[in-house]
Amino acid sequence: MLHTTVTQLIGQTPVMSIEVPNRDSCLVLKFEKNNPGGSMKDRMARSMVVAALRDERLAPGGTIVESSSGNTGIGLALAALEFGLRFIAVVDHHAAPDKIRMMRALGAEIRYVEGDFGEDEVAVVERQRLAAQLGAQLPGALFMNQSDNPANPEGYAGLVEELMAQLSAGIDAFVGCVGTGGSMTAIAQGLKWHNPAVRTVAVEPAGSIVFGKPGHPYYQSGTGTPAGDEVGKVLDYGCIDEGVQVTDIQAFETARYVARRKGLLVGGSTGGAIYKALEFIVTGKLTGTVVTMIIDGGEKYLSTIFDDEWMAQRRLFDPRIATRLDDWLIGTTHSI
Ligand SMILES: Cc1ncc(COP(=O)(O)O)c(C=O)c1O
After folding, report:
1. Atom of ligand 1 at shortest distance to CA of 235?
2. Cα separations (Å) of 257 from 29, 159, 200, 296, 314?
3. Is the pLDDT of residue 73 over 70?
4. Minimum mean pLDDT among 56-70, 177-191, 235-249: which range?
5. Is any atom of ligand 1 closer than 6 Å to the C-beta of 47?
6. For residue 334, what pLDDT is reported?
7. What is the dihedral of CA 154, 1, 78, 13, to 10 degrees?
8. Closest CA to 154 of 83, 248, 61, 51
9. Is there a smaller number of Cβ atoms within 10 Å at the N or the C end of the chain?
């Protein structure tokens, strides 16, 4: 099919299986990084814009405002171009610098929140406040508010249908990240609607408060809910069988490992989901076909997770993770 607009390129992303030796299981990765903006979030960004235009909350020529760590903003920048809208992204210094460069390259206007925030502190509360204020003050503007916007989960309906078609032999489990909870909710609900026996595991960064643990700063970008912020209204806890935490070290060492060993450049939150999915498979908590998303690519983190100096300065190296992943994937001792 010959596409004629950029958002028509969203979706139909490929899947790849990684065998886990000596286990009756495989880990299937869906390459959401292959979307035109480089992440799964292109889907929900287009969905939110289309819904706002349809409901006349936004008129052609209007302005979208959103608080974003980057991927939603990149998706919104694409949708804004296609639908003839202005886009203002409200960001903080926690966002991966390459994501902000991408948004700028795609014509987005960038507004940094002011304030003295630590590098591993997400200034998300301040970001939301400023985005809501701009949305209310600027003529013809709309704050997208992804955490509470039903068009966020609705944007993943096509992803679930793709998975059902691609894995027609069956899906036994899904392991996903939780930021707003939009993707986890839509995918978990969708898979369980087709087969209620599908197991669903949601992964948040250690330090995030989605599953009631105490909050502390973390470096994983785009995922989790930091202390002080509210968990998104789009998150449906009822469709999640288990909520677990992954440390920055486990997530980043796994992203670096799959790059070195498998040739797959994935971002930090995806590294965390892969680590937890493999741990659950190796410990027998999940069996069969276990699916996770490559939410975004490592290309967006070359100056952070894939930069040795950046990792060392923050004490994020731990060689035991690669040894453990070797055990799990090459099948020597199966230690955890
Ligand atoms: C890299 C990355 N991981 C995970 C997530 C979490 O996705 P969701 O907001 O659907 O929970 C996001 C969302 O922005 C993201 O950009």
Report:
1. 11
2. 15, 27, 24, 16, 18
3. yes
4. 56-70
5. no
6. 47
7. 60
8. 51
9. N
Domain 41-146: state its class.
Answer: alpha beta
What residue type is 95 in one-letter code?
A
DSSP-derived secondary structure for 197-213: T-EEEEEEEBTB-TTSP
Q: What are phi and psi of 159, to 5 degrees?
A: -65, -40
Token couple for 2: 């010959």
pLDDT the model gives residue 213: 96
Do 6-34+157-326 and 41-146 fold alike per CATH? Answer: yes
| Secondary-structure class of domain 6-34+157-326 per CATH | alpha beta
What percent of the chain is predicted at pLDDT more than 90?
Answer: 86
Arithmetic mean of pLDDT over the chain:
94
Q: Residues, the chain, total?
A: 336
173-177/288-293 β-pairing: parallel
At residue 123, the pLDDT reads 76
Model pLDDT for residues 45-68, shown as the tens digit of each residue: 999 999 999 999 999 999 999 998
The residue type of 236 is D
Structural tokens at position 230: 């509210």
Pocket test for ligand 1, best of 31, 76, 183, 211 (most atoms within 8 A of CB): 183
The C-alpha atoms of residue 325 and residue 329 are separated, in whole angstroms, by 6
Instruction: Provide the whole-model pTM.
Output: 0.96
- What is the residue extent of each domain of the chain? 6-34+157-326, 41-146
